[in-house]
Amino acid sequence: MNTMGVVLDEAPAQSLSFHGAAFEIFSQVLQTKDQSIMTVKSLVAAATKVGVPTKVSDKFQSAVDSDKYKKWVELGDKAFADRDLQGTPSVFFKGEQIDLGKLQSPTSLTELVTGSTPTVQPSQQSTQQPSQQPAK
Predict the structure, then answer these.
(1) What average pLDDT does the segment 72-87 reach?
(2) How many CB atoms lie within 10 A of CB 20?
(3) What is the distance between the alpha carbons of residues 59 and 70, in angstroms, rounded to a whole number?
(4) pTM listed for this prediction
(5) Rounded distance, CA 27 to CA 93, Å?
(6) pLDDT class for 120, splitting at 50, 70, 90?
(7) What percentage of the chain's residues is helix, strand, coil (to nearest 5)?
């Protein structure tokens, strides 16, 4: 979170890309159960890969060592707990939390937003590709 704070403050245009790259590392940690993968060095490499300037990623170690964004992290954790959130992703629409388990079709999120009803259930959708017409 401290490295994310640095990117948000100093290279906000790369923050979403960095977030994704950091989560790739986190995913590897979960899959391998090897926490040694999550290092400042690996986060610097991820930042470089997505275009975070070196002058920004050079500040990662200092931010981690000093816990520079501790208050920000604590406020985020408190806001998460205050809403009784259990995990991520947590999606809200018009102030209500959405049960992501109910969004099963490829169009279910659009249907939720537009208020439309599903036209085809996932089990009814064809998985076959349309036949190719021969070239004339």
Answers:
(1) 91
(2) 11
(3) 15
(4) 0.69
(5) 27
(6) low
(7) 60, 5, 40
